[in-house]
């Protein structure tokens, strides 16, 4: 019994205890509240107004999934944020998605937020379009949601103190907030594709470095032998043709195979007299005299043509000299000469010239030229058909030309030449590859001809005894494969090609030099083939070749490009590459004599540095790589500059914050200089690199870059004539203003000219990409202080009402989902409830028709937009509802308690609601309705004070 | 029980059969050989191919007349090719180079290695004839620039010039360069290059057929004992040793 009694006693005592606890809590809360304004720094209070009922629900609930995804992508601990910049989803540009960089995707991925994970948002509906708040407004709300909200309310009120303390923990300065909302750092995608295509062309002029060394040695030899040479010159111009013939023969035998002699003879001016002999004899051939004379003449023709051909063989200076002597039409005359030897010599010389890029193009679209070409291909003479093939290889570039050749039956003719002699077969394979490259029509004609026999014969030629034929056959197959995805897809032929080309790398001669280029064209952009190549130990094999000393520049170039292609997509290749220490060899190549090799080394580094794992480990930002790269920024060749900038851009996305090394090397200064370059590609890449450097950078780094750049030149690059430069400039600003308030303030220097420039671009530019970046700039700025928000507001909705629609409305209606997302987030940041002016901004947005636009976007197909819209709807409704609902709660609390309580609550209202006049006004209004006369006076006085802050129009609407 | 023993015995027999090679007697083998039909023309073509590739012009001409087999290459070009080959073999390299250039100027222009080897041979001949001054000048003017272009050429050039340093060249470490075999090596290289430029196989088919025969016999040795050809010059079938 006693036990029961005690139990009853306990039960009876409990309420008493509760009361005392409540009282105790109350006094603690009261004192804390009183002291709170003293504890908190003033500016902090202004910016981070923690009105408890307001902040947690909208901040945490609907947005958390997005944030959590971002956080999990970044692999950091989750903390709840207070500032809005972290809510924006970093954008993944299309270029990067092409790189299919898995790790990158994971990091800043393009996967859409999963709607299924979103906790059901409280379905408040924004029905009251005039924003009028009435008690009946609550009735419109879904009952369940009201209950939910009330639960939250009660919870919030009891943890008032805790929350205030938490506000310190959830300081906006905590690094996670800085890391979340930024324009994505895009790892490079080759805009420099053209470079790769250029290098993989089959005809490759002798590299510049070689000719330089040749000229150096040539000058030394000319001095010793010029005596004999000038003698040659007089003999060549002699009137006696016997003397001429002997001189020609001597000249020819001296220059064949001897580059040095060719160069020195060209300098001595021996080409024009030879060309003159050819011209006179070629044009005089019609009136042939006696047989002996005719034989003598044709001998002269053969010798002069051979000499000219040899001058043109293998190096561009010779081709230029020969072309300058205008021998071209005369050599063509030789092709119709009755003597076979003359025809041979003419065709050979022309072929030599056509192997150079300098040779004039033949326009196949002219019927006359096409007929001539067909006559060449139909010739019995092997050299002449070879010439025809060379002309095709040299001149056929556009699709129109390829089609014209197809229609003229060239493909059929070339297929029949596959059966011919060795050289005809090789020529035919090469021409076929040229005609079929990127031309679906030609490929289907080839594959379909003779029910696939042509194709199978080419496949058969990949097993040929001669390495050159094997190489050309595989190049032909690669052209077919790359053009039409439907042919040659089985794994057998793919593996065969990969193994064949890797094996051809071992050839010591020309074939080995060209094999890496063919290999590159096989694997570039094709992860499946890259995987096969990786499995065939391609990285190791290429690395072994790279290790050889005295590598021919062309082969060096090809191997570097092949490595670049291998590492462009697959992380496994990159890690194998790095584990072999191949980075040392490639960074040595950065100082190679040949500019092409330097460019290729940069491309290789760029592809390897796409590896997020190694970027995170800071494997690239070291003394071995960065200083030579920064030196390359001064390179005389623009292509090297661009390639070096692009590597730096990738490396700049360094997560270990080791950017100081880069700054020490003077890299920033150089990049800023280059971003003002005359060349738009250089500008673009420099800005891109700076943008990536800005990504996740600390404030010191950002300020450093900003000071180097200056606001005025930033404003001028935003208004660059090239749209793609504008886009990068805006993205740079976007990364600049992301993060802490200090960096946002940077754009307000010099009267906010940067922001004005952004607005101009948003109004005048015409591409989605620029708009997206520009909108994100505004969105990021809007995440700043009240002043920043107002500035953005000012840009969004012009003060003077000249009838023009605000551009943000246009963006909200855009078809581009990314643009819609950016625009919606800007509005989210502007109306974020914790800031005092958000309600008035909401009203302005409403009158600009933006709120109604947002309401109509509830069913947006893009999940990113939908999440933001749902949130925004919630905020808009909640902000209106909150003011009434929360006031009522407070009021009910107000009546239950003693005068001390009333005073403390009033104190809270007076101190904390200073920045929220609307909420305060509603509260006082409600108070006025219910309480006694003495309180009426207080409420009226408070309302009167508020009238200063609430404009007449808004107050009216409120009431 | 007896049944079990029978089975075991049979198994042992089968095993023994598998271990010992199958024996083909001479009669069986010859009967099989007779069944293989080879066209006379094909045999003739094989012979002609050998004559043409190796450059026996007169023999080829006679063989053409006798057997009516048409060579797959113009016999006149063989004459030119042989003239070049002969010139190199006689040490008259300058003449050989001129002849090659008359034949097809592309050969030496597009084949730097061959061109270097010919020039090297020319230097060797100059050294052989004791024309030291001339040799040095030639090496400087013609060969040094090639060495600059290619590292391996430079090494070979150094080896060649080393000949000048020795009194008794025949016994020096690089003496083999002066050997007649070096001439033959260069000559066959030129021969192969000319053949390739004429879209012709650079090796005759007959030697590769013989190589194939030896390979096939080695493969067959593992499986059977048969009348084997051991002496390729006589092509006699030798009875299998059992």
TrEMBL record, chain B:
<protein>
    <recommendedName>
        <fullName>CTLH domain-containing protein</fullName>
    </recommendedName>
</protein>
<dbReference type="Pfam" id="PF10607">
    <property type="entry name" value="CTLH"/>
</dbReference>
<dbReference type="InterPro" id="IPR006594">
    <property type="entry name" value="LisH"/>
</dbReference>
<dbReference type="InterPro" id="IPR024964">
    <property type="entry name" value="CTLH/CRA"/>
</dbReference>
<feature type="domain" description="CTLH">
    <location>
        <begin position="77"/>
        <end position="134"/>
    </location>
</feature>
<dbReference type="Pfam" id="PF08513">
    <property type="entry name" value="LisH"/>
</dbReference>
<dbReference type="InterPro" id="IPR050618">
    <property type="entry name" value="Ubq-SigPath_Reg"/>
</dbReference>
<dbReference type="InterPro" id="IPR006595">
    <property type="entry name" value="CTLH_C"/>
</dbReference>
<dbReference type="InterPro" id="IPR013144">
    <property type="entry name" value="CRA_dom"/>
</dbReference>
């Amino acid at each position: 019994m006693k036990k029961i009694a005690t139990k009853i006693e306990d039960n009876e005592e409990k309420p008493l205890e509760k009361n005392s606890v409540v009282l105790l809590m109350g006094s603690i809360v009261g004192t804390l509240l009183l002291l709170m304004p003293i504890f908190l720094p003033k500016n902090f209070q202004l910016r981070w107004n923690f009105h408890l009922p307001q902040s947690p629900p909208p901040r945490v609930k609907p947005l958390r999934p997005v944030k959590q995804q971002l956080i999990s992508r970044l692999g950091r601990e989750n903390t709840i944020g207070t500032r809005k910049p972290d809510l924006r989803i970093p954008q993944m540009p299309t270029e990067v998605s092409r790189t299919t960089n898995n790790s990158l995707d994971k990091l800043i991925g393009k996967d859409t937020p999963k709607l299924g994970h979103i906790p059901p948002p409280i379905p408040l509906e924004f029905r009251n379009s005039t924003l009028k708040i009435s008690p009946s407004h609550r009735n419109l709300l879904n009952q369940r949601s009201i209950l939910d909200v009330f639960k939250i309310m009660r919870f919030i009120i009891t943890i008032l103190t805790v929350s205030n303390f938490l506000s310190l923990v959830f300081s906006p300065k905590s690094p996670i907030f800085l890391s979340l909302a930024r324009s994505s750092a895009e790892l490079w995608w080759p805009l420099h594709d053209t470079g790769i295509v250029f290098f993989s062309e089959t005809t490759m002029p002798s590299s510049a470095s070689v000719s330089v060394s040749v000229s150096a040695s040539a000058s030394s030899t000319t001095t010793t032998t010029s005596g004999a040479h000038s003698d040659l010159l007089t003999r060549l111009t002699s009137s006696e043709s016997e003397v001429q013939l002997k001189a020609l023969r001597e000249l020819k035998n001296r220059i064949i195979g001897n580059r040095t002699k060719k160069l020195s003879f060209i300098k001595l001016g021996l080409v024009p007299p030879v060309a003159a002999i050819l011209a006179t004899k070629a044009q005089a051939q019609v009136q042939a005299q006696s047989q002996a004379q005719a034989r003598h003449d044709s001998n002269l023709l053969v010798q002069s043509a051979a000499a000219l051909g040899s001058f043109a063989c293998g190096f561009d200076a010779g081709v230029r000299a020969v072309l300058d002597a205008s021998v071209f039409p005369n050599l063509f005359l030789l092709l119709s000469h009755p003597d076979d030897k003359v025809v041979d010599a003419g065709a050979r010389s022309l072929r030599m010239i056509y192997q150079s890029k300098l040779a004039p193009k033949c326009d196949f679209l002219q019927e006359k030229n096409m007929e001539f070409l067909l006559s060449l291909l139909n010739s019995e003479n092997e050299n002449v058909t070879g010439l025809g093939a060379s002309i095709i290889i040299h001149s056929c570039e556009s699709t129109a030309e390829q089609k014209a050749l197809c229609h003229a039956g060239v493909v059929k003719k070339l297929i029949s030449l596959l059966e011919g002699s060795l050289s005809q077969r090789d020529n035919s394979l090469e021409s076929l590859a040229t005609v079929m490259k990127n031309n679906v029509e030609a490929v289907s004609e080839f594959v379909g001809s003779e029910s696939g026999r042509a194709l199978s014969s080419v496949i058969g030629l990949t097993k040929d005894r001669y390495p050159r034929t094997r190489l050309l056959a595989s190049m032909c197959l690669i052209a077919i494969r790359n053009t039409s995805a439907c042919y040659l897809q089985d794994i057998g032929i793919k593996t065969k090609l990969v193994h064949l080309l890797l094996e051809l790398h071992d050839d010591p001669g020309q074939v080995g030099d060209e094999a890496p280029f063919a290999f590159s064209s096989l694997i570039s952009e094709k992860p499946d083939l890259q995987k096969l190549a990786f499995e065939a130990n391609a990285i190791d094999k290429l690395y072994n070749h790279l290790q050889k000393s005295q590598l021919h520049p062309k082969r060096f170039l090809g191997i570097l490009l092949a490595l670049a292609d291998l590492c462009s997509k697959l992380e496994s290749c990159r890690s194998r590459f790095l584990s072999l220490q191949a980075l040392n060899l490639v960074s040595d190549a950065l100082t190679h004599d040949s500019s092409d090799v330097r460019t290729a080394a940069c491309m290789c580094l760029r592809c390897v540095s796409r590896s997020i794992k190694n970027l995170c480990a800071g494997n690239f930002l070291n003394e071995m790589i960065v200083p030579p790269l920064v030196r390359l920024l001064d390179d005389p060749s623009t292509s090297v500059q661009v390639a070096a900038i692009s590597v730096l851009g990738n490396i700049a996305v360094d997560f270990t914050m080791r950017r100081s090394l880069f700054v020490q090397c003077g890299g920033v200064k150089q990049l800023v200089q280059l971003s003002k370059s005359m060349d738009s590609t250089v500008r673009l890449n420099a800005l891109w690199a700076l943008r990536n450097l800005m990504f996740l950078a600390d404030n010191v780094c950002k300020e450093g870059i900003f000071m180097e750049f200056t606001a005025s030149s930033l404003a001028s690059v935003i208004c660059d004539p090239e749209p793609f430069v504008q886009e990068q400039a805006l993205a740079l600003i976007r990364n600049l203003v992301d993060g802490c308030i200090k960096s946002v303030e940077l754009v307000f220097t010099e009267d906010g000219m940067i922001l004005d420039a952004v607005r101009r671009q948003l109004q005048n530019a015409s591409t989605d990409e620029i708009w997206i970046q520009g909108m994100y700039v505004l969105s990021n700025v809007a995440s700043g202080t009240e002043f920043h928000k107002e500035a953005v507001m000012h840009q969004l909705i012009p003060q003077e009402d000249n009838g023009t629609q605000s551009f943000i409305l246009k963006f909200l209606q855009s078809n581009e989902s990314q643009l819609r997302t950016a625009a919606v987030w800007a509005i989210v940041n502007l109306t974020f409830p914790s800031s005092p002016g958000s309600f008035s901004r909401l009203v302005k947005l409403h009158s600009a028709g933006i709120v109604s636009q947002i309401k109509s976007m509830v069913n947006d197909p893009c999940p990113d937009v939908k999440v933001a819209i749902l949130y925004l709807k919630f905020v808009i409704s909640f902000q209106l509802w909150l003011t009434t609902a929360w006031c009522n709660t407070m009021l009910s609390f107000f009546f239950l308690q003693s005068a001390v309580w009333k005073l403390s609550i009033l104190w809270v209202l007076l101190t904390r609601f200073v920045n929220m006049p609307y909420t305060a006004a509603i509260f006082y209004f409600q108070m006025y309705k219910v309480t006694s006369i003495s309180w009426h006076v207080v409420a009226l006085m408070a309302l009167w004070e508020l009238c200063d802050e609430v404009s007449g129009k808004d107050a009216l609407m409120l009431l | 029980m007896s049944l079990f023993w029978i089975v075991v015995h049979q198994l042992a027999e089968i095993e023994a059969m598998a271990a010992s090679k199958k024996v083909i007697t001479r009669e069986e083998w010859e009967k099989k050989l007779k069944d293989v039909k080879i066209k006379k023309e094909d045999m003739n073509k094989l012979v002609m191919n050998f004559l043409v590739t190796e450059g026996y012009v007169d023999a080829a001409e006679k063989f053409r007349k006798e057997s009516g087999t048409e060579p797959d290459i113009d016999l006149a070009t063989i004459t030119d090719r042989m003239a070049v080959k002969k010139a190199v073999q006689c040490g008259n390299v300058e003449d050989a180079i001129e002849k090659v250039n008359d034949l097809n100027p592309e050969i030496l222009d597009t084949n730097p290695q061959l061109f270097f080897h010919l020039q090297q041979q020319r230097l060797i001949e100059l050294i052989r004839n004791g024309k030291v001054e001339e040799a040095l000048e030639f090496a400087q003017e013609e060969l040094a620039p090639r060495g600059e272009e290619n590292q391996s050429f430079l090494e070979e050039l150094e080896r060649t010039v080393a000949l000048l340093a020795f009194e008794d060249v025949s016994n020096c470490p690089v003496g083999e360069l002066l050997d007649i075999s070096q001439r033959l090596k260069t000559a066959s290289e030129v021969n192969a290059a000319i053949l390739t430029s004429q879209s012709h196989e650079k090796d005759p088919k007959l030697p590769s057929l013989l190589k194939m025969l030896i390979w096939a016999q080695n493969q067959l040795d593992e499986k059977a004992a048969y009348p084997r050809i051991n002496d390729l010059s006589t092509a006699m079938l030798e009875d299998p040793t059992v």
